[in-house]
Amino acid sequence: MANPRPPIMAYFQFSHLPAGPLQEVACRFSKLAYELYTTLPAGPELSVALRKLLESKDAAVRAALGAPTSGDFVAEYTNWDMIGPGE
C-alpha cells in the first residue's frame, strides 16, 4: 500500500511558475519528491527528507531568477578553486 500523500507535496507544484527555467528547475525537484514519497516508508526521516528537499527547491528556483552581478560574495570570487574549506 502506498503512503498517504504528505501535505508538504503541495509545495512541490510548479505550474504557477512562468514557463522556462523556473518551471524546469522546480519540475526536477517535484519529480524527486514524488519518487521519494512513493518509494520510501512513511516516517520521520521521509518527512525530514521532503522538508530539506523543499528548502533546496526554493533556493534553486531563487537562483534561477538570475545570478548576482556585482557587490556581493558571488561576484567577488570568479575562481572557485581558490576558495578552501571554511572560507
* Terminal Cα span: 47 Å
Radius of gyration: 17 Å
What's the number of extended β-strand segments?
0
Helix-strand pattern: HHH
Q: Proportion of β residues?
A: under 5%
- Helix residue percentage: 40-55%
Output the structural class.
mainly alpha
Q: Main sheet, how many strands, which sense, barrel?
A: none
The dominant shape is: elongated
Overall average residue pLDDT? 82
Low-confidence runs of at least 5 consecutive residues: 69-87
In DSSP terms, counting alpha (H) and pi (I) runs of 4 or more, how many helices? Answer: 3
Concise synopsis of the structure shown:
The protein has 3 helices and no strands. It is mostly helical and 87 residues long.
Topology of this protein?
Elements: H1 21-39, H2 44-64, H3 73-76
Helix pairs in contact: 1-2
In words, what does this structure look like?
With 87 residues, the protein is mainly alpha-helical. It contains 3 helices and no strands. It has helices spanning 21-39, 44-64, 73-76. α1 packs antiparallel against α2. Mean pLDDT is 82; it is low at 69-87.
